Amino acid sequence: MRILLLLFLLIPVAAFSQHFRKVVPKRGEVISTLLVRHGLNPRLYEREFVALNKPLLGPRNSLRAGKTYRLPPRKSEAQLAMKKTAAPKAAAEKVTAVKKHSGQTALLFGKYGRPSASDQALRGAVFYLMSGHGGPDPGAVGQYGNAKLAEDEYAYDVTVRLARVLMEHGATVHMIVQDPNDGIRDEGVLLMDADELTYPNLTIPLGHVARLRQYTNAVNRLHGRYGKAYQRMITIHVDSRSAGLNTDVFFYHHERSAVGLRLAKNIHQVFKRRYLRYQPNRPYVGTVSPRTSLYVVRNSYAPTVFIELGNIRNSKDQRRFVLPQNRQALANWICEGAIADYRGK
Q1: Do 334 and 249 contact (CB within 8 A), yes or no?
Q2: Residue 317: its pLDDT value, please?
Q3: Quick one: 215 exposed, middle or buried, by C-beta within 10 A (0-12, 13-18, 19+)?
Q4: Does residue 10 fall inside a structural domain?
Q5: Are the CB atoms for 210 and 295 separated by under 8 Å?
Q6: Is the preceding omega at residue 138 within 30 degrees of 0, hence cis?
Q7: Predicted pLDDT of residue 79
Q8: DSSP readout, 128-176?
Q9: If we measure between CA atoms, which residue out of 185, 195, 296 comes closest to residue 237?
Q10: Residue 23 gets which letter from DSSP?
Q11: Strand pairing class (250-253; 288-290)
Q12: Structural domain of 150
């Protein structure tokens, strides 16, 4: 009896002796960015964070200013390995289930489904599309009223719209960053998540360079399949600058890539014409410039254009991003420039 009593008394000590780090979020921060800032992968720790702090969270698990939150304890290597293999497996099972019915392509486009080619303007062209950030890294985050706008969500929505319209013109398209359940969304505020994967079905790493290397390797592995075909990579981002700075869409290319420069200029010309038509009283000031320091621009085998859509923190740019018809227009204009480039190849 004495032994049993001693064991019983020891159980609470073992169960409740765990130490939790306490943190205060920065202004405008969400759970995923808070975890990243403290070295924790949101994919592995976000659910536990919510369970630990549920009474202190606001609507849709938002962080409250001035509150102190507990971080989940860092897990052992064995525990992390189990979680990392479980998440991709679940996502893969979901993708496989949809493949049986309507194909993985339909999954990527959500309610819009798989596109059918309306013409063959891009037949023979191969595009690699990469939206910025994703997985544990939401990229830049802007405050929009009481909501948060995350770069990766808006870049992804424009990218997947671009994929669909390119396919409508007969192009072969590879989405390098893929979300297993979002598809094209017509909501204004796109809710943040961290479940994006790298093609074909890889968990996106937390480290910045590791993530970019994974993306670029996916492009480069595919590149060899198509030999001398017209192959281009387009990566889409949303910039983060001073909230007072309204920016137009601008473009980067490799300084030694003549074909990358030509694609950037062709898309740029479309934007100039469209701005002149729809906003005649406001000059378009988007630019085309070399920037070889960008990892994906420097290391992708396919000639690459890096596109910044605007400033996620600027109220005027935000009003453009939250309108789905504007996101579709961006995709259409990029596609129009790609068609012009392909015809002049």
Answers
A1: no
A2: 93
A3: buried
A4: no
A5: no
A6: no
A7: 53
A8: EEEESSBTTB---EEEETTEEEEHHHHHHHHHHHHHHHHHHTT-EEEES
A9: 296
A10: E
A11: parallel
A12: 102-343
Distance between CA atoms of residues 193 and 308, nearest Å: 21
What's the distance, Cα to Cα, between the start and end of the chain in Å?
87
CA distance 234 to 77: 36
Determine contact, residues 210/163, Cβ cutoff 8 Å. Answer: no
Contact 115, 103 (CB under 8 A): no
Spatial neighbors of 334 by CB under 8 A, at least 6 apart, are 162, 234, 236, 267, 270, 307
Cα–Cα distance for residue pair 180/178, rounded to 1 Å: 6
Please give the structure tokens belonging to residue 87.
């998440």
Q: Phi, psi at residue 77, to the nearest 5°?
A: -60, -40
Distance CA(319)–CA(150), nearest Å, equals 14
- Phi and psi for 321 in degrees, rounded to 5? -65, -35
H helices of the chain, where?
A: 2-16, 31-37, 42-53, 77-101, 104-109, 151-168, 208-223, 258-278, 295-299, 315-321, 324-343
What is the rounded distance in angstroms from the CA atom of residue 94 to the CA atom of residue 276?
A: 45
Count CB-CB contacts under 10 A for residue 223: 18
The token pair at 166 is 């390119």
Look at residues 201, 219, 199 and name the one whose alpha carbon lies nearest to residue 304. 219
Only one residue has tokens 């790298």, namely: 198
Say what the pLDDT of residue 100 is.
33
Structural tokens at position 67: 């509150």
The answer as to whether 255 is a domain residue is yes
The token duo for 100 is 């049986």
Euclidean distance between CA atoms 35 and 40, whole angstroms = 5
Q: What type of residue is 217?
A: N
In a domain, 289, yes or no: yes
Residue pair 244/290 in contact by the 8 Å Cβ criterion = no
pLDDT value at residue 18: 56
Any idea what the CATH number is for the domain that residue 328 is in? Answer: 3.40.630.40
58 within domain boundaries? no
Beta carbons of 46 and 194 less than 8 angstroms apart:
yes
**Which residues of the chain fall short of a pLDDT of 50?**
1-17, 77, 83-103
pLDDT at res. 41? 79
Query: How many structural domains are present in the chain?
Result: 1
